[in-house]
Design brief:
Elements lengths: L3 E8 L3 E3 L13 H4 L1 H4 L2 H7 L9 H12 E7 H8 L10 E5 L7 E2 L5 E5 L3 H12 L3 E6 L1 H9 L5 E7 L7 E2 L9 E10 L4 E9 L1
Parallel strand pairs: 1-7, 1-8, 3-4, 3-7, 4-6
Antiparallel strand pairs: 2-9, 5-6, 8-11, 10-11
Helix pairs in contact: 3-4
């Protein structure tokens, strides 16, 4: 049965992205600070179909594991617009549902990635994603506001955060505006490394 998950990097002071985000400045220019551990792993570049990375260790397996369990993605319009201009063809290798007010025909890429543009809310996007996922998990890719919407609707089963040892000071916090009474949180796993701390949480709706 599909779970609804997210898997996100944040700074030590809780920021998912920096200021002044846009297509010419994805994530506010902080990707290398937050996601240094990912960029260091060959598994990440393999997924993109590009040669790169210096390491292939247990953190590479974390990347492979979450990719293997994901059957569909949901993301917000801002994240899509930041990536559309630069993402390689067939990046996601699954159906991607974009939350937007824009009416647009599906964008079918070479391979197995198709972007669908959803105009009627997160519940409809989730139902369509479940059909696409065929029993695999649905990953709420981002940005922070989209993840917050799913959390506050009580729809998330599990998340994995990767806390980088860096302070950003400003930007978009991942957990701003969260309903603190929605869930009981259980720490399922803690994995330290040189570049980040990986923490997996299970969520039980109250």
């Amino acid at each position: 049965m599909s779970k609804i998950i997210f898997d996100s990097g944040i700074s030590l002071d809780g920021f998912f992205a920096g200021d002044n985000r846009g297509p010419n400045n994805p994530m506010g220019g902080v990707s290398e600070k937050i996601h240094k551990w990912v960029l260091n792993q060959k598994a990440f570049w393999e997924y993109l179909g590009i040669e790169g990375g210096k390491e292939d260790n247990f953190e590479g397996q974390l990347i492979r594991d979450v990719n293997a369990r994901t059957g569909a993605f949901i993301m917000g319009k801002r994240m899509f617009e930041e990536g559309e201009v630069s993402w390689p063809e067939d990046l996601y290798k699954a159906d991607v549902y974009v939350l937007t007010h824009e009416k647009r025909e599906p964008w079918v890429q070479k391979g197995s990635t198709t972007f669908y543009f959803i105009n009627d809310g997160i519940e409809n996007a989730l139902e369509k994603a479940k059909q696409s996922a065929k029993g695999k998990d649905i990953r709420i890719q981002g940005g922070a506001n989209t993840i917050q919407q799913f959390l506050n609707a009580g729809l998330v089963d599990e998340f994995f955060i990767h806390i980088a040892p860096v302070f950003l000071g400003s930007g978009f916090r991942l957990f701003d505006g969260i309903d603190k009474d929605k869930y009981e949180l259980q720490i399922a796993e803690v994995i330290p490394s040189d570049l980040t701390t990986h923490i997996r949480y299970k969520l039980i709706k109250k």
